[in-house]
Amino acid sequence: MRTMTEDAFTEHRPLLFTIAYEMLGSAADAEDVLQESYLRWSAVDASTVEHPRAYLVRVVTRQALNHLRTVKARREEYVGTWLPEPIRTAPEAGEDVILAESVSMAMMLVLETLTPSERAVFVLHDVFGYTHGEIAASIGKAEVTVRQIAHRARRHVQARRRRFEPGSEATQEVVQRFLSAAATGEIQELMDLLAPDVVAISDGGGKVVAARKPVVGADDVARFVLGVLRTTTTTRTRVEPATYNGMPAARFLTDDALDWLVAFEIHEGRISALYGVRNPDKLHRADAVRAIDRGEPSHGNHDR
After folding, report:
1. pLDDT digit string (tens) for 267-288?
2. What sections of the sequence does the record tag as coiled-coil (predicted)?
3. Which of 136, 153, 157, 232 is the most buried (most CB within 10 A)?
């Protein structure tokens, strides 16, 4: 028989997972944080908590902050380019534009450049709409300090954020045309679908062959894609359209095993970035569709 404690945690789990994932960039780490948070929540008499969601958000935020500080060193030692662990999202995830942008590969990479406190404050305020006062209670800092952190983080993000179109039928069509051109080796058709300053970022984690540095420019990216397809796919490889991190994507499966995942950033009808994940440690957790949610926006969403 389910308890009040279990019901409250289950009800808010998509929101709690999304907060932890955006703070950590890893679904596995986010799940660890949720497990730790549930253990703390289960030790509390839920009937005495007036606002369970607010309480759980505070617990998850604190656990994610603790976890984030421990993984920073691990990321600095990562072999090659680090990309967030991809999460498979439902196609309708793109309907919430703020949420889709916040979990996109581009935004997650920007969030990686923030300090742990800046990341927590930006995610909670600008994505989830919590007030500076609510955030202060979650991270154990004075409200005036949180305001300063929020201003600094927002300025940093705005200077680095990339504009893109969330996954939709139109963006998936661009991806399909790109894949068709790649399959036939039509390099000019590929280049026509790429923005002049397109960038391709690959993550092999040092475990499989992948470009160690970003590839930039339509000509170089087109040739890079054709080279990867030539060396990593066989007659047993099939390609499936999907949505990951709120972005149109393609799954490359060989003998039904996922061995390459590419998420596409599209702006004004052209591909502006490709994010290719080949690290098997990240791919083996990428199949499950994740429920992500922002919950009901806080009443203080505009207290800037």
Report:
1. 999 999 999 999 999 988 777 7
2. none
3. 153
